[in-house]
Amino acid sequence: MADKFDVIVIGAGPGGYVAAIHAAQLGLKTACVEKWVNKEGKTVHGGTCLNVGCIPSKALLETSHKYVEAKEEYDELGIEVSDVQVDVKKMMARKEKTVQNLTGGISSLFKANGVTALEGTGKLLDGKKVEVTGNDGEAKTYEADNVIIASGSIPVDIPPAPIDHKLIVDSAGALEFQEAPKRLGVIGAGVIGLELGSVWNRLGSEVTVLEAMNDFLPSVDKTLAKETQKILGKQGLDIKLGAKVTGSDVKDDEVVVTYTDSEGEKTQTFDKLIVCVGRKPYTESLLDEAAGIELDDRGFIKVDGTCKTNVDGVYAIGDVVRGPMLAHKASEEGIMAADIIAGHKAEMNYDAIPSVIYTFPEVAWVGMNEQEAKEQGIEVKIGTFPFSASGRAMANNATQGMAKVIADAETDRVLGVHILGQHAGELIAQGVIAMEFGSSAEDLAMTCFAHPTLSETVHEAALAVDGHAIHMANRKKRK
């Protein structure tokens, strides 16, 4: 008789491992299946996020930014250093150590919470049975009352630039360079492309970003997107919009890329090319036809607002379902699914999921942007405040950017918060909390913020919604 669990989770990324731990904490007999194998041939948890995504990229972004600060900005602060060098191999070793610590930590959390770790590739069969095929090729079938699918996503390939894992790489390959390529091409000016381009630009690469769309960061509020493009351009990123890649040719350790723009066909030669044009749900060999799970026309597993599939007792979360492909979104969905399985009432507010781009300065937002409000016919009032007017930002030598609060003109309810600036990814939590509790702009404006802090930019932007910002000229007078 097959082993039986209350819950089997397929995938141990930020959605799956969180779901498994929370289910076990709720008293459910839980197992989690993972097939990811590291360079040493050992199964590791954490999925794309911890192994080749969020964590390693942030380690490189932080190190490369500190290098630029020491090289270009310390003198202005009165710190004299000379001959600043970066050891890329040592930087990569630190990145690997950070990944090992975190993935090993998840394995320890599984043990501490009583989660059974199943090593191998999971496949959902009919009747909520899960077949796990180990690396040795042997398969074993387990039974479950409930299954949570958290298989994640993989990079999208494009025919004009096939990945060879040498000169043409995906986002994972871009985290493994052992030296900064002299000429680096990046296909895609999305979050991943801009972050990876920033890392290698800081370390000395001449970076060209080719983006097929004519709009820069279309999901970001246009005011912030325009300013972000300007700042990144000054940093050295050559961002070409409306540049559609049509082909690539590898010759003599170089990649010749052909693309078309408004002026016609062009070519550019690179030493390395990163392809990061998006990701797609990973369902390869995941679902037996007899399992009856429905997919949409883009390959995502169909779910309702609580992540239930069309099959009773089967849930799907994270990148494999609709919504933004964000680690924290996957984690919250995993918690929601586990709560529902345990008999609790749970829901998720999809209008209050923050997004962050970890360039410098960072870009972060939650909720509606100005153009979306206009498209929906919502009358809004807006408050902005520049980091250049923040005492803490001045002290930090980080005055680029702004905070923007968008509120409903009739109800004053906060509809969106958008931040471009140092530590924007941390500051955006204030906007998320405000929206989660249905706050008004006045609620934010009447809240006491510590001084001097970067958080005060959000406070002042909220005050500015009604023309009451203190540290900038106001257009309105308080009545």
Describe the structure.
The chain has 479 residues and is α/β, with parallel strands linked by helices. It folds into 3 domains: 3-155 and 280-348, FAD/NAD(P)-binding domain (3-Layer(bba) Sandwich); 168-277, FAD/NAD(P)-binding domain (3-Layer(bba) Sandwich), CATH 3.50.50.60; 352-464, Enolase-like, domain 1 (2-Layer Sandwich), CATH 3.30.390. It contains 12 helices and 22 strands. The protein has helices at 16-25, 47-52, 54-73, 88-113, 191-202, 222-235, 327-341, 370-375, 391-395, 424-436, 441-445, 456-464, and strands at residues 3-10, 30-34, 116-119, 121-124, 129-133, 139-149, 153-155, 168-169, 183-187, 206-211, 238-241, 244-251, 254-261, 264-270, 272-275, 279-281, 314-316, 355-357, 362-367, 380-386, 402-408, 414-421. The strands form 5 sheets. Strands 1, 2, 3, 4, 5, 6 and 17 form a 7-stranded mixed sheet that branches. It has a 5-stranded parallel sheet with strand order 8-15-9-10-11, with helices on one face. A 5-stranded antiparallel sheet has the order 18-19-22-21-20, with helices on both faces. The chain is globular and about 65 Å long. The mean pLDDT is 96.
Describe this protein with a few key phrases.
seven-stranded mixed sheet; 479 residues; FAD/NAD(P)-binding domain; globular; dihydrolipoyl dehydrogenase (NADH) activity; cytoplasm; 22 strands; alpha/beta; Enolase-like, domain 1; 25% strand; 12 helices; five-stranded parallel sheet
